[in-house]
């Protein structure tokens, strides 16, 4: 009996150890298994590895544009604050197409990306024919250029007089013309008279950025294989290695600001950690920005996500952002950094007036919408803006296991630097300020059909794997408890059987029969 129990205990002990070790190995290897599974799911038929989630994102993209309408034109020209009325959103479905895709043996992929926009009237507040009053972009660009080049007073007065014959500092356009292009009078005149100087007379506040992007070449990491140090590249998935064939920019005033960090914000690596910065490179503003972890929550489709937000000091006038201050040539010829107030950064070295053989910088200044997180003096210089942390801050929701971006909004406001010039009558009384033109919300959110696919292809296998590994551990634990019980019971029985029988002391007085 005891030997039988002992044999059973040994068998169960071995079984329990096997189950426990299997369960522990499954736990420790489960993340690796998930990564390998994600990688395998993203292979193309031809054997060249590229991620379908990157090339054909399951998350629909939309862009909402808000425009600012000047309500007090006459008072503004006489020095009053601009009273702005926000109109929007004007919503467009965004279709991204990867073109000229090439694969390289070192695990990188190059491509260009064209974007097509379709107006969605059902999601918009009004039709694109809505008329607005705003700053004349070309007029103010030329005035800024004169100011930057320190043109003598006499020449500025002559140029201002000639300019005023064709242009006015304030213009009225439809939303469609403003965003997607209109013919500028002064550029049209120059195009006809000096075609070698001006080749394009169309001006827009949004389409020019879209058109330029299709000529930009981006090289990213596929995240597959090992690097030169024999480390897996999975954490580099989607990271931009080169932009227009260069590993860095030449726009800003130091090497840190000119670094190209992060992805294009449409993909991120699997196994996301809460404490890591989510970097994204935004070519339309010529810089990288980062998001910080904020909280974990479930989205509308019961998918757990990490919520990352743009920090409130992302564009602060700080030591970390010193490189985004521009070099300014002083009267004595020396160079000095010119920093804007907190919350702003100039794009004049990044964007130029299109269609001209002369690189005329556009006096565009970027910020958060409604000057969120900007210096109070910038906010107080205009009427009609109400910064709101929920509506105006950029954010991103990542599914941490796969790195799929489930939801996100990239929000940015584009402003123009308004200057006055005492030698030019039309703007001699304008109060200098940063004038809001538009703000853009590029947003994406997974829909029900794609959420169902995600549950089927990712959540269900992960759930089965999780249940399986814990079932094994439970079986192993149960067997181990059984083994311990049997061992204790066998020892108890052994002690009982081995106990000596009681002895009786006899003498001549002890009876022979009891």
From TrEMBL:
GO terms for cellular component: cytoplasm; plasma membrane. Keywords: Cell membrane, Disulfide bond, Glycoprotein, Membrane, Receptor, Transmembrane, Transmembrane helix. Pfam families: CD36. It is a multi-pass membrane protein. Its main location: membrane. It comes from the Eukaryota. GO terms for molecular function: scavenger receptor activity. It is found in: Cell membrane. The chain crosses the membrane at residues 7-29, 458-489. Belongs to the CD36 family. This is Scavenger receptor class B member 1. It comes from Rotaria magnacalcarata.
């Amino acid at each position: 009996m005891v030997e039988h129990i002992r044999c059973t205990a040994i068998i169960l002990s071995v079984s329990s150890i096997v189950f426990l070790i299997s369960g522990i190995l499954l736990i420790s290897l489960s993340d690796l298994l998930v990564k390998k599974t994600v990688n395998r799911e993203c292979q193309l038929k031809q054997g060249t590895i590229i991620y379908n989630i990157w090339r054909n994102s399951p998350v629909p993209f939309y862009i909402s544009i808000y425009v600012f309408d000047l309500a007090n034109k006459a008072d503004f020209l006489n020095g009053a604050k601009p009273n702005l009325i926000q109109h929007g959103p004007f919503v467009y479905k965004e279709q991204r197409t990867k073109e000229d895709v090439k694969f390289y043996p070192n695990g990188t992929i190059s491509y260009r990306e064209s974007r097509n926009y379709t107006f969605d009237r059902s999601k918009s507040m009004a039709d694109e024919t809505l008329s607005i009053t705003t700053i004349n972009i070309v007029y103010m660009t030329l005035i800024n250029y004169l100011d930057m080049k320190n043109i003598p007073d006499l020449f500025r007065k002559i140029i201002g007089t000639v300019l005023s014959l064709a242009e006015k500092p304030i213009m009225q356009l439809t939303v469609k013309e403003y965003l997607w292009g209109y013919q500028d009078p002064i550029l049209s005149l120059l195009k006809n008279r000096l075609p070698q100087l001006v080749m394009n007379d169309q001006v827009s506040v949004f389409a020019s950025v879209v058109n330029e992007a299709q000529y930009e070449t981006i090289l990213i990491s596929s995240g597959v294989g090992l690097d030169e140090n024999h480390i897996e590249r999975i954490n580099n998935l989607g990271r931009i290695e080169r932009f227009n064939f260069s590993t860095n920019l030449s726009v800003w005033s130091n090497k840190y600001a000119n670094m190209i960090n992060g992805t294009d914000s449409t993909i991120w690596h699997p196994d996301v950690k809460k404490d890591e910065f989510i970097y994204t490179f935004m070519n339309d503003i010529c810089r990288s920005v980062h998001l910080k972890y904020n909280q974990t929550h479930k989205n509308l489709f019961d998918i757990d996500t990490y919520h990352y937000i743009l920090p409130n000091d992302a564009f602060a006038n700080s030591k970390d952002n010193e490189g985004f201050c521009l070099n300014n040539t002083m009267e004595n010829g020396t160079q000095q950094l010119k920093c804007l107030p907190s919350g702003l950064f100039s794009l004049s070295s990044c964007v130029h007036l299109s269609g001209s053989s002369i690189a005329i910088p556009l006096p565009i200044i970027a910020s958060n919408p409604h000057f969120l997180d900007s210096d109070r003096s910038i906010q107080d210089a205009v009427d009609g803006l109400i910064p709101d942390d929920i509506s105006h801050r950029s954010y991103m929701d990542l599914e941490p296991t796969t790195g799929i971006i489930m939801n996100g909004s990239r929000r940015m406001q584009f402003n123009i630097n308004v200057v006055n010039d005492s030698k030019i009558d039309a703007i001699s009384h304008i109060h200098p300020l940063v004038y809001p033109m538009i703000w853009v919300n590029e947003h994406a959110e997974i829909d029900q059909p794609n959420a169902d696919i995600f549950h089927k292809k990712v959540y269900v296998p992960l759930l089965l794997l999780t249940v399986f590994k814990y079932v094994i551990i439970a079986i192993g634990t149960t067997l181990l408890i059984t083994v311990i019980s049997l061992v204790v019971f066998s020892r108890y029985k052994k002690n009982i059987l081995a106990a000596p029988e009681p002895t009786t002391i006899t003498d001549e007085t002890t009876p022979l029969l009891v």
